[in-house]
Amino acid sequence: MHSSPELLLEARGIRKSYHKDKIELPILRGIDVGFVTGEMSALVGRSGSGKSTLMHLLATLDQPDSGEVWFDGARIDNQSRARRDHYRNSQIGIIFQFYHLLPELSAIENVLAPAMIRRSVLGYLRDRKSLRLRAEAMLDRVGLLTRSHHQPSEMSGGEMQRVAIARSLMSDPKLLLADEPTGNLDTETGATILSLLRELNREDELTIVMITHDDSIAETADRCYRMCDGLLEDNASDAAKNSRSNSAKLETVAA
């Protein structure tokens, strides 16, 4: 059984519960959803709806109790930890609401961190010149090349999120998962980050799945799915209709 050719990422029958003492807390109750290659999709829902838990499962940061996760035609949730780590480090980029930058490192060192992790010491030393050039190119892409030697404490929230985006692009991923990417930013800065994500989606054909609680942000995506109490509502928006109104909606978010 294989995924549809146009689906880059797919969740099938995903269920997940957590346990506190002897009490079982169901978080996801059977999620079936697919994300189309080259699209920017949004998962929207209130806090506690299960959207971040689903993102963690899609990123193989956790494993479902039952169900399957497929990426690029192959099932990934049942792979060994080493293979899941490799998938996460080489095929996808992840950005979070709180950036997760290493405070003692400069911007460029934070961007280089995934490459350092992926390679052995000797491998990194061998490739360090080309890797640094790529890190500089990624910082330039997000408009922060001149801030490459600044540490996170010397940056604004928007700058830190742009460094996080540059870091997520370091491995040239097929997929970007963004968990509340504007949730810790003011409205104007958040709109700038959304515009950057849309630019990456359109110009690089990067598939993006964005988690948000904000309807106005979710509606800027090509396709929007709503989560409620661990279930997915069947209200995916029509991509063609949505794409015609994206620019106006981004302006509304920035207003």
UniProtKB/TrEMBL annotation:
GO MF, one example: ATP binding
Occurrences of domain ABC transporter (ranges): 9-254
Cellular component, GO annotation: plasma membrane
Protein family membership: Belongs to the ABC transporter superfamily.
SMART domains from the UniProt entry: AAA
CDD domains (alphabetical): ABC_MJ0796_LolCDE_FtsE (cd03255)
Coiled-coil region: none
A Pfam cross-reference name: ABC_tran
Entry keyword 4Fe-4S: no
Name of the protein: Lipoprotein releasing system ATP-binding protein LolD
PANTHER family xref list: IMPORT ATP-BINDING PROTEIN (PTHR24220), LIPOPROTEIN-RELEASING SYSTEM ATP-BINDING PROTEIN LOLD (PTHR24220:SF689)
Keywords recorded for this protein, A-Z: ATP-binding, Lipoprotein, Nucleotide-binding, Transport
